[in-house]
Specification:
Blueprint (H helix, E strand, L loop, with lengths): L32 H29 L3 H13 L2
């Protein structure tokens, strides 16, 4: 009824979850002062670019009230 599983050539991969190594990975290197400053500078540059795009783009998104008033009056005059 139940078929017996055939041995797999790479059966040790299935047991990898149970394997515990006694070798610890090397500790992570600490970032130098220049690397930290570079990361801060990159972050500030990205934030400044986003703020600058908002500052430059906001006037283009505003509706000019004087232009819409003249367009509406021309449409009502039948021109």
């Amino acid at each position: 009824m139940f078929r017996r599983r055939e041995p797999v050539p790479f059966a040790f991969l299935a047991e990898a979850d149970r394997f515990r190594s006694n070798v610890a990975p090397p500790p992570r290197r600490r970032a130098t002062g220049g690397q930290i400053a570079g990361r801060w500078l990159l972050g500030l540059t990205i934030v400044a670019a986003l703020v600058g795009s908002l500052v430059l783009g906001m006037p283009a998104l505003e509706i000019d009230q004087s232009a819409t008033g003249t367009q509406q009056s021309q449409a009502t005059d039948g021109r």
